[in-house]
Every structure is written in structure tokens, then in C-alpha cells.
Amino acid sequence: MIRTTFLSALMAASLVLQARAAGPEQAGQPVDPESAKVMTVYFVGHSLVRSITPTRLHELVAQRGIDLQFGSQLKGGFSLTKHWEVLEKGEAIRYWESNKPAGDRFEPGRPDGDTLPKRFGSFWTAHKNHDWDALVLVPLLGADREKEFAAFAKFVDYAIEHQSANQIYVFQSWLGLPVLRDENGRRAGLGRLDFATVWEGESAVTKPSAGGPLMAVQRDYYEFMDRANQHFAQRLSKPVLMIPFGDVVCELDKRLKAGTIPGLDELYRRDPDRIPSWDPKVGAKVGANIFYADRLHPVAQPHLDGTIATYVMGLMYYSVLTGDSPVGLSGDAYRFGHEADEELRHALQTAVWDVVKDHPYTGVQAKTANDVSASRPTGKKKLVQKLKSGSISVARWKDEKTAAVTIFSGDGMIRSIKSRWTPENPNVPYDGFYRLGEEYSIPFTFFLPPRGLDEPSYVAASGVTPPAQPAGSLGTWADWKHMHEAGYEIASHTYSHADLRPSKSDESETRSGLDPTYELQHAIVAIQKNIGIRPISINPAFGPPAGQLLGLFRKFYPVVRGDDDAEVVLAQHRDTATAEELIGRLDVAIEEHKWLLVAGHGLRTELGRQEEAAPDFAERGKRWDGYKPVEYPVMAALCNNIDQRRSELFVGCFGDVGRYIRERNAARITIISETEDRIVLDVTHRLDPNVFDLPLTLKLSLIGTVNLAGMSQDGKRVKVMTRGRDALFNVVPNGGPVTIKIQ
Length: 743
Description:
The protein has about 750 residues and is α/β, with parallel strands linked by helices. The chain has 22 helices and 27 strands. Helix content is about 30%, strand content about 20%. Strands 12, 13, 14, 17, 18 and 19 form a 6-stranded parallel β-sheet that branches. Strands 2-1-5-6-9 form a 5-stranded parallel β-sheet, with helices on both faces. Strands 10-11-22-26-25 form a 5-stranded antiparallel β-sheet. The model is unreliable at about 1-35, about 205-215 and about 365-380 (pLDDT under 50). Helix 4 (about 80-90) crosses helix 6 (about 145-160) and helix 11 (about 310-320) packs across helix 12.
């Protein structure tokens, strides 16, 4: 895991308290360097990093007692892909950093023509030899996004390997202005764009004539973030976060058009260089277009001057990196400190903070004066869409339940569903998990290693004696097809119960030595052939696989155990478990609004108890009940408790809960229209519709005297559950427009 550095332990409390203790009259005054707290940040990017400008950001954050020490690897127009190629070729490019000696400290050096020795240098050198509070990566989401994500992953992998970065950030870019062409195709200037409409729209525009490679939109970056956090879920101790420049500009675009950003005319008359694209004839009506100095930048070349747009960037970086409000920060560092601009600065500061503190990916939680030590959120996004008559949101759990719960059994032991089974007498009634499921309506999940069914003589490696899976202990395909038809999930445990963890002697190899692709793919083939369904879930045998295999797991299985650990409360149904222990874990999940995952390897039977009591069991016995199976009364007590608390719980199989989480996190709500008597909206995601087709629960919260009169999706009536002024209803993502009638 990436280790903690000095600032992460100090920033949330010490710096915030220090800034507030200073009082508003001192807010814009630099703090004595002797008492400044060091924050180290390394940037990998292009001219939008240069535009911050790091030197000005250093001066801005110094107002709150922070000494920003930065390093960077920069090149105009460079993607992360190109940056990595430069590293591999050993080529030198621009390394702007804090390398100017100032006593026992360092000030920012020159961005160009700097003859001073480099302290940090390239990304590889800087992260091999130094620790950083933050690593900011700036992807270019152009045409080849797969290649760019692969490069991003290489940078993160390097930081993980060298334990060099406490927190990793993705810089979210903004839109490029459209290029106008004359009748001969020659460039004829720049056009304007409706920033918020394009930014919050459906797809990116990547044609050079429409603005070039920086035309990824909001959802593209959100999908990049979701993918990044899924990819590194088991290797990073905290989620990848975002520097949300595009979202900040989008909010300012709306406020400018609404006329709530004052003082711009006066600033332009006094100092037009601070608003390079201001047109007095149209003023703020053009929204975010006033922030552009050229097609792609908030400040003209050499991208070093101060403008209101670069001031906004500085405020944003300060807010995200410290978790504190930027309100009160002077504009002196950006040549924007005139006392006449105080109201304008405050409006910009407020807009930035409103975005950052509630953003799904910044990891920032607004702190109050009475709670400056509040914990920071996990970065999981909560999708809420404001309406004129209230708001609509996606419920955390299906039907707005408090928590979720899944019980699964690994290895597919036949005795767990036929307690009186023996090799000599296999045709006995189904009971065990089958009976519990029927009695308490619980859809258990069974993770099978199909090779034990295809080859009845196969004994899977288990690391225990006698083996946890004797030959023939999985029963027959007919048994598990019966369980599937009864409503239980049949999922994958790899084909051979393969140990795909990294080898202790060579991490590039797995411990089993088996072909990972075959193990993952052939389990699907076998289950599909014999049961008739394609499994969507997998539980890696023996625990988390080698990190380099996670992408392969996700290629074959949409739901992989381990990807959602941040949302999980784990319990083990094993031989030593008690009902009180398991029910206690359920209490924790409900209290924390999380997913209780109850994992184990089968049910204890009377036959198994007798067999394992034999004196020669260790040498000649067969572990037909599985590895450390739970006592049936303990499991029955847990199931009964779940059933009694069903009003609080989303009780689902592993695949359904995992799918709900992914759909919830990928969902987008688009308001198509809103009038006095109806709201029309669309709920969409860009996941595979053949897999991710579970209905999502939406919550409509109405205000004032507005009441719900009816609801439908794609012309079909939708059932509504009411809770006071809230209405809950399930809709299918990508299933057509949702119409809400109000009165």
C-alpha cells in the first residue's frame, strides 16, 4: 500500500485550525516560512499544469501556512502515453520544480531556461528517491483511451511499487473552443460553446475542427475514475481522487449566465488582461467562454500570467489538496488582488468550494467551525439531481434498504445441499442450504470449481489434509442445475480451484502455475454448457489474485469478489462461528449502511461429524462436508434473523448486489423536461446492457405543495412506494424515458 507522508497526518487538523485561528484579517497574509507546513506535489502533464501556475499556487497556499514544494514532468500537448514513452527512451523534457535555494528552504525555480540543479527531475527519479503527498496525473482522453488508461496505470503502478505517493489525483480537463473555418477550409477564428450543455452531454467531440483532443466531457472523466478505482481497488489504500476543473468551469458557466458573478465589467475596464476574452457587448451572457485566452488555455502563452481563470484553478487545487474552503484567499498571487474586486473574488471562491465540497470524486467533506476534524468521505459518488419541485436520487441499496446481505458457499460441496449424501447413496433429498433458502427466501450463491464436476476423480489443491475437496465431493451437474432452477446463483471459483495469487519467489508467476486465462474462461464454458447460464460472478480461490491478473478477471466476469471491499462488512460462516457473532456482523452492516458478505465452505452434517471422528480420519478420511463447515443451527439462526429484518435489508445473491453497486455508480440522470404537471427524465449507464439490466431504485423527494400523481417508464406504469413526502420506484437503466406526473 502507498505509505502515509507528513502532510496527510497533519493537514486536516493542524493547517485548518491554524488558518482559522489567524482570523479573516490575516487570511491574505503569508505565514512565516519558519512555521510553514510542507506539502509536496508532483505533476505529470502538459500546458494546463503550466497554466496553474505552480509558482503562483505556491504563493496562494502560503497564505494558509503551507509551503508547496513541487516537482513536475511537463510537455505541451503530451498525453500520459507520451510521457511514459519519454521515460522509457530516457529522453529529457521540462522539469519545473522547487529548486531555487532560499536558506534551508527552496522556492520555485524558473519554468524555462533554469540552470539550477534539479532536486527531483523526471517522474521515475522523483518517485524512486522522494515521497510525495500528492501525485497529479493529467490524462488526455482522446481517441485511444485504452492506451491512455494503460499509461495511467503504469504511473500508478510505479508509485505503488516505490510507495512514493500518499494520494493520487486525476486532473479533469475542460473543453476546447470550436475552430471556425472559411469556405476554403482555412482557419477563421474561434467560436463559442454552450459549456454546460456540452460538458454534461452524452459524448465527447474529438474532431480537430471542433476543438481538438481536449473535448472529453464530464461522463468520460467519471467513467475513467470508476475504472481507475475498480482497477486499483485491492492495491491502493485509498481511492484515486479528482481535481475537477471541468466541473468547476461548468458551475461557473451556469452562474455567469444567471448573472450571479458580479464585478466583471469593472475588472475589465480597469485591468482587461485578467479577463482575456471579455466582450463588453455580450458580457457574462456567454458564460465560461470569458475564461479562454485561446482555444485550449485559460492564459495566453507562455501560460504564466495571472487571470481570473488561473485564479480559479489555484482555488480549486487548494480546496482539493487541503480539504478546506478557499473563501478569503487573496488574489495577489494572480495579479487579481485589488480591493475593488473583493466581491468578485468571493463569488469565485464560493463557486469553487460549492463544487469541490460536494463532488463525488474529490474526497473532500465540508468542515464546520465546530467540527474541523470531521473524517473525509471515501470518494463514492451519490447521484442526486435537483428539480424545481424537489430532487431525485439513486438509492444506495435496492428499494432504499438500509443495508445489503449475501450468503455464499465456496467449493460447491454436495453435502451442503444434500446432508445425507454418500458416494454409495447419492440420490437423497435436497436439504441444507436448499431447505434454508426455501424457508427464509434467501438466494444463496455457490462458487463452483467446475473441473471437479467434469472430472469426478479430480482432487483440487486445498493446502489441508485430508483435502478440502475429495474426488467426487461436488456431486453432479444435475444437482447444481437443480439449484440454479430453484433460484440460487451458480458462480465461478476458477475452473480447477486454482491458486492465482502471486508466487512468493516470483511475483510474475502464480502459485499454481496454471494458465489464468484458461482457468477463468473454461469455468464459464463448463457452467454454460451444463447449466445453461453464463456466470457473471467469480470468487478467486485462496484469496485476491496477483495484481497483474485483476484486469483479466474483470474481462471475463463483471462482478469480482474484492472489487467492492470498501462497501463490505465481512463475516465467516465457519466451524467456530456462533449465531451471536454472525448476527452481530449484520448489526454492523446495518449501522454502517454496508453490504454484509457471509462467506464460508459448507454446512456441518451428522454424517460428516461421525466420519471425521474416526481415528484414522487424518490418514484415510474424506472431508465430505468441506473445509471448516458451519453448524446448521448457527446458519439457521442467521437466516431467521435476516428474514425478520427484511424491511431493512436488500437480500440478494452475490451477482445481483454486485451488479446493483456498479449500475448505481455508473448511472446518470438526465432531466429531459420539467413543467408544472410533469417531469420527464432518463436514467442511463454505459455498462454492458446484456449484463447490467437490474432495475435501479430512485427516490423522488417533493417539496412544497407538489404531490405525485403517477409514474411510467417508456409508456408502462411503474409501481410506486411512498414514505411520507418521498416516493420510491424501480426503473430499468436505458429502458426509456421516465415520466413523473405531479399536481
